[in-house]
Amino acid sequence: MIASPDILTDVPDAKPVRVFLPIAGSKERYRACGVYQKTEPPRFNLLFKAGVLPADALDVSIPCLIIIDMGGPNISVEAMITAASDQKLEMIVQKTISHDQMREFFRVDAATQVISKSFQPELFGKKETPWSKQGTTIDISGSGILAAFPGKVPMDEPIRLEITLPTEPPELVKVLAHPVRAVQIDDDRWEVAFHFDDISIEDRDKIIGCCLVIQRRLLRLKVQVRDIAK
Predict the structure, then answer these.
(1) What pTM, to 2 d.p., does this model score?
(2) What phi, psi does 68 have (nearest 5°)?
(3) 148-183 pLDDT per residue, tens
(4) Could you tell me the domains of the chain?
(5) pLDDT for 8
(6) Buried b / exposed e along 105-122 (16+ C-beta atoms within 10 A)
(7) What are φ and ψ of residue 5, in 5° steps?
């Protein structure tokens, strides 16, 4: 179903955007920066510098994700590629993704290594001994993670997280976060939810791209299970 043309009304021509492109035969998403070009809504074009766009490698059967920074809440849309050349993609919007939907859209089940560490206590005149705990993520999103640790982490201080994304090859992202809740599951296991406070655009894009891949994989699995059940 094609989304309403009104979605693109407030997007100015020549607006820089971030796009996550599906690649044929690959589980990964290609991250790129392009420029929005107005045409006739719900159609639009994305323009790229020479050598940036892998036009021949794109999988046009899978929707792309486009994130447009409007100086407040981002506009996020899924769109299909209708034509591709070396420096231009012709697109048609399928649907928008609200801020609340974005949080759920990018929250996927994923088990991967995470290390939590104290945040430079010496900078704040603290004398505590630096600490580190290795755990495993339960789910991950562009704004935070839920992870399991062999013990509770401090709940009243910022924490550095080093997350190894389950990509090919694995990528390490480092963020500053704070715990929002902790639940003791058994004697030596705590589940802790973190919200990211300081994360680079590049690292957030890595997480979002990873979540898109996992989500697509889960959707394929659901289809396969449904077909078997029939």
Answers:
(1) 0.71
(2) -120, 120
(3) 999 889 998 899 999 999 988 899 999 999 999 999
(4) 7-98 (2.30.110.70), 107-216 (2.40.10.220)
(5) 80
(6) bbbbebebbbbbbbbeee
(7) -65, -25
Amino acid letter, residue 139 = D
Pull the structure tokens for residue 203.
């690292």
H/E/C letters for each residue in the chain?
CCCCHHHHCCCCCCCEEEEEEEECCCCCEEEEEEEEEECCCCEEEEECCCCCCCHHHECCCCCEEEEECCCCCCEEEEEEEEEECCCEEEEEEEEEECHHHHHHHCCEECCCEEEEEECCHHHHCCCCCCCEEEEEEEEECCCEEEEEECCCCCCCCCEEEEEEECCCCCEEEEEEEEEEEEEEEECCEEEEEEEEEECCHHHHHHHHHHHHHHHHHHHHHHHHHHHHHC
